[in-house]
């Protein structure tokens, strides 16, 4: 019993750590106490089952099979699937428990593992503190207990003791007191805000810069490259030689629609390139973003009666993690009012939004318009877009409750357009060789939109690399930069591609800018974490009327959203034919203003067919029966292959065991003859022959073993019938035990 408890202690410690570590990676934000308790229970049951007999194991296996079959059937029901998703942590609990058992038993029985694992856990806690990784109380529980029990084990191992020297017993006896102590520590409230220890912050900053410098020096060729930087949002416009990927959490996106496949969050824009880096010279402090969005919606309303064909209004919540910047991150075409995002005041600078003051909100939500840029209809819109009329612009101001807001009137918008032409359409001169190349690329293009699409495809044929090396000294302006990248290097990372696209677009007279921010693919999940490695740069093109539009020339990066238009849905339904009259194409599109309307849908009732209830338990029962029958067949086969004496010994053990089930077992110090006289007639007519034969076999000789076997076999069957009639439950347990009676005497010690 002590050995089992010793094993369970380590299993529980491992369970605490695994729950804390893996639940967040499975999309479960917080470990609930019920899920944790169930994990501990299952983790403790597994070692118990491992030490139990076949009867208990078979019953448990049958139950698991029944539950598995039930889960397979029920998971096909949408309502059940949605319900299970809401409690998905309980689905993962058995896997976590199994992992805890494996890890716990390894710690319990492989002594050299304890100290290294404890050191690794301490190192993990230190790294988590430096990196601001989330650490919940269950991980603290795991680390604390592991440290304490390792110290206890090492102290016991080093002490010289006499008598009972089992160190495991000592741990089992003191562990309840350890648990009580740790429990009181865990329930003590902790401050939600970090302690403002400036000296610790300075030490952490110095350590971070030291690590960063080491990373910069540890390039693959071992040569220090002063232009290498860690990828991440910087707000600076340098084109560095090499970039090193980091994976620190910076942002978390919440409340994403399942139809969203990727998100771009712009943070900083640039308008001027000096040959080596990008700068922001736009002097404006106006809310360019909201004017761009309002004008876009006005142009869409003039272009089509179905705005949802081109854009869809979407909500997004952005949470700041380990990111310290004044820039406000937002998608293109956002509706951030002049007073700020989610009530947090902002200021505007060179077309960008920044938080006002030093206080940066922990999270904020905003509305923005996704663009159907993957559908050819959007390119058609761009080709015909033009500055909207005052009436359409003012109508959108009214519709968005922006009437009377300062700095975003139609006149302000026209000034904004002129400023775009001035700062974002700076002329770029191409060399003769590059002009010749671009003429080949643009051959057959009918307008600027065709050229931009062709340019984007052409750049994607170049090579992406994180280590293109620094720009040569010959690069001094836009022309030499383009010649180097387009004609010589033909490789680089996102900033190189975005720079080339912007400059080449300007060479065609198209306003363009470079944008820094983050790009992430969501795969339809509602919440997604952004890391420093997801920092990205891309170009945006200005089309009068449509405003700023994103292009993606960097190899390996996806484009924008796509959905079918209302006309395409209608045509698809018409082509399907009869039998689909109830299909509603609007089911695949989101109404423009759906974000402000919350419809209360009647929850789907989980209709469970009869076979879903019947099949799982029947499957489990059939498995147990089949397993038992197979086991008995194997035992019977093995029994028949034994020699006569071995079969007789087995039958004698079974007879003595069955007599004990009937309450007629042997007593200590009792001889066979005394035993036979005592139970007498209560044991049946054949008891005398059985005792006599067994006595002769043990003390006289074994020549008549064949006859003894026949008599014992007949008596065993008679006793089985009696047990089945008088003790049906005992008979069932006997049968489940593969014809073994654990408390039956053997022939050798009878």
Q: Any idea how many domains?
A: 3
How far from one another are the termini?
Answer: 29 Å
Rg, rounded, reads: 38 Å
**Portion of residues within helices:** 40-55%
Number of strand elements? 17
Show unreliable segments: 219-231, 585-606, 738-750
Overall shape:
elongated
Order of strands side by side in the largest beta sheet?
11-8-4-15
The class by helix and strand makeup works out as alpha+beta
Mean pLDDT across all amino acids: 79
Beta-strand content: 5-15%
Please summarize the sheet with the most strands: 4 strands, antiparallel
Tally of separate helices: 24
Note the main attributes of this structure.
17 strands, four-stranded antiparallel sheet, 750 residues, disordered C terminus, alpha+beta
Structure explained in plain terms:
The chain has 750 residues and is of the alpha+beta class. It folds into three domains: 2-187, no CATH class; 237-550, no CATH class; 635-736, no CATH class. Strands 11-8-4-15 form a four-stranded antiparallel β-sheet, with no helix packed on it. A four-stranded antiparallel β-sheet has the order 5-14-16-17. It has a three-stranded antiparallel β-sheet with strand order 2-7-6, with no helix packed on it.
In short:
The protein is elongated and about 120 Å long. The protein is α+β, with helices and mostly antiparallel strands.
Write the layout of secondary structure elements.
Elements: H1 2-22, H2 33-50, H3 54-74, H4 78-86, H5 88-109, H6 114-131, H7 137-158, H8 167-187, H9 198-217, E1 229-230, E2 237-238, E3 243-244, E4 249-254, E5 262-270, E6 272-273, E7 277-279, H10 288-303, E8 311-320, E9 346-349, E10 352-355, E11 363-371, H11 376-384, H12 390-399, H13 410-423, H14 432-441, H15 448-459, E12 463-464, H16 478-489, E13 491-492, H17 494-507, E14 512-521, E15 528-531, E16 535-543, E17 547-550, H18 566-576, H19 610-641, H20 644-661, H21 672-679, H22 687-699, H23 705-726, H24 728-736
Parallel strand pairs: 1-3, 12-13
Antiparallel strand pairs: 2-7, 4-8, 4-15, 5-14, 6-7, 8-11, 9-10, 14-16, 16-17
Helix pairs in contact: 1-2, 1-5, 1-7, 1-8, 2-5, 3-19, 6-7, 7-8, 10-12, 15-17, 16-17, 20-23, 21-22, 22-23, 23-24
């Amino acid at each position: 019993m002590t050995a089992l408890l010793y094993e369970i202690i380590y299993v529980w410690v491992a369970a605490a750590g695994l729950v804390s570590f893996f639940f967040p990676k499975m999309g479960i934000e917080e470990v609930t106490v019920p899920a944790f308790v169930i994990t501990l229970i299952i983790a403790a049951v597994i070692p118990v089952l491992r030490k139990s007999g076949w009867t208990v194991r078979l019953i448990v296996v049958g139950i698991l099979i029944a539950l598995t079959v039930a889960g397979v059937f029920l998971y096909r029901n949408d309502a059940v699937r949605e319900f299970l998703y809401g409690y998905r942590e309980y689905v993962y609990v058995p896997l976590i428990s199994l992992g805890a058992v494996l890890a716990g038993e390894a710690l319990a029985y492989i002594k050299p593992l304890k100290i290294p694992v404890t050191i690794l856990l301490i190192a993990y806690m230190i790294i988590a503190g430096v990196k601001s990784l989330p650490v919940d109380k269950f991980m603290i529980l795991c680390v604390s207990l592991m440290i304490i029990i390792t110290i206890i084990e090492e102290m016991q191992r080093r002490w010289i003791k006499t008598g009972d020297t089992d160190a495991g017993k000592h741990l089992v006896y003191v562990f309840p007191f350890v648990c009580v102590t740790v429990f009181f520590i865990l329930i003590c409230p902790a401050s939600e805000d970090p302690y403002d220890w400036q000296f610790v912050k300075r030490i952490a900053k110095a350590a971070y810069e030291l690590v960063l410098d080491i990373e910069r020096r540890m390039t693959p060729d071992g040569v220090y490259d002063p232009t290498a930087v860690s990828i991440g949002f910087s707000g600076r416009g340098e084109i560095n030689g090499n970039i090193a990927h980091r994976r620190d959490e910076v942002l978390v996106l919440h409340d994403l629609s399942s139809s969203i496949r990727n998100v771009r969050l712009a943070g900083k824009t640039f308008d001027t390139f000096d040959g080596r880096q990008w700068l922001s010279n736009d002097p404006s402090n106006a809310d360019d973003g909201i004017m761009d969005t309002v004008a876009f919606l006005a142009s869409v309303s003039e272009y089509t009666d179905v705005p949802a064909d081109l854009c869809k209004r979407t909500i997004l919540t952005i949470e700041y993690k380990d990111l310290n910047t004044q820039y406000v991150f937002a998608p293109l075409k956002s509706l951030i009012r002049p007073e700020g995002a989610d009530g947090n005041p902002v200021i505007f600078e060179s077309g960008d939004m920044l938080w006002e003051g030093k206080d940066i909100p922990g999270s904020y939500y905003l509305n923005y318009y996704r663009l159907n840029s993957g559908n050819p209809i959007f390119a058609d819109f761009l080709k015909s877009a033009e500055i909207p009329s005052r009436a359409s612009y003012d109508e959108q101001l009214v519709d968005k409750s922006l009437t009377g807001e300062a700095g975003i009137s139609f006149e302000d918008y026209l000034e904004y357009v002129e400023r775009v032409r001035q700062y974002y359409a700076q002329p770029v001169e191409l060399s003769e060789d590059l002009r010749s190349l671009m003429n080949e690329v643009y051959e057959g293009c009918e307008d600027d939109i065709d050229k931009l699409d062709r340019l984007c495809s052409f750049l994607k044929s170049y090579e992406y690399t994180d280590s293109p090396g620094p720009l040569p000294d010959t690069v001094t302006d836009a022309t030499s930069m383009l010649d180097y990248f387009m004609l010589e290097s033909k490789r680089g990372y996102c900033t190189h591609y975005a720079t080339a696209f912007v400059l080449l677009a300007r060479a065609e007279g198209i306003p363009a800018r470079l944008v820094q921010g983050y790009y992430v693919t969501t795969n339809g999940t509602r919440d997604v974490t952004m890391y420093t490695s997801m920092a990205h740069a891309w170009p945006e093109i200005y089309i009068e009327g449509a405003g700023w539009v994103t292009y993606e020339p960097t190899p390996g990066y996806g484009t924008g959203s796509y959905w079918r238009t209302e006309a395409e849905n209608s045509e698809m339904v018409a082509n399907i034919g009869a039998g689909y009259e109830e299909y509603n194409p609007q089911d695949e599109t989101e109404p423009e203003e759906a974000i402000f309307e919350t419809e209360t849908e009647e929850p789907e009732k989980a209709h469970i067919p009869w076979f879903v209830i019947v099949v799982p338990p029947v499957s489990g029962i059939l498995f147990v029966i089949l397993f038992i029958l197979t086991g008995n067949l194997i035992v019977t086969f093995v029994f028949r292959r034994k020699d006569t004496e071995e079969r007789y010994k087995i039958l004698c053990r079974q007879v003595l065991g069955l007599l004990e089930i009937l309450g007629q077992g042997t007593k200590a110090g009792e001889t066979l003859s005394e035993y036979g006289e005592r139970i007498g007639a209560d044991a049946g007519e054949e008891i005398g022959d059985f005792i006599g034969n067994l006595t002769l076999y043990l003390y006289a000789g074994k020549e008549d073993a064949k006859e003894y076997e026949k008599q014992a076999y007949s008596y065993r069957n008679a006793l089985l019938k009696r047990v089945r009639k008088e003790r049906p439950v005992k008979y069932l347990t006997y049968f489940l035990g593969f014809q073994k009676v654990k408390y039956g005497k053997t022939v050798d010690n009878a």
